[in-house]
Amino acid sequence: MSSSPSSSGSDRDLSSRNTLAVFPGSFDPVTVGHIDLIERSSEVFDKVIVAVACNQEKTPLFTVAERIEMIDSIFADNPRIEVETFQGLLIDYLIKRDAHVIIRGLRAVSDFEYEFQMALMNRKLAPGIETFFMTSSALYTYVSSRIVKELASLGGDVSDLVHPLVEKKIKAKYDR
To answer: Fewest C-beta in 10 Å: which of 21, 64, 72, 134?
Structure first.
């Protein structure tokens, strides 16, 4: 049974507009889990912006420019993926870009509580913006940027946790 947008009761006709989604994060560094979610998102949405956050409170391993360059290189062959940076409120950035979807990844149930609160706050700030939750692939549920950095700093092998380009950059940072 098919239904037209007018028969669904919705005022929004998502089928007639290009859907721009934003996947925000620090991506310090971008992991195989991030890559998986970004690739899968690009199959769902017309365009995905990977929005690298400038967080002044954190001391990153990579500069924002380095993170953007790595992500750009990884997705150079996918015209549906763009990489940008933003500062301040995510909602302000989405409004500026005329985006209507925030993509958030969930690795475990513990992620859901925080992400749910953020989604509700974002909806309060901008009711027309939706949060789209994607679960991590089972292979990547334990992978996080924090774990990658800790393992790499101790001389551990991160080759199955990050893209080869990122692994090379991490090794250069830790001079190994």
So the answer is: 72
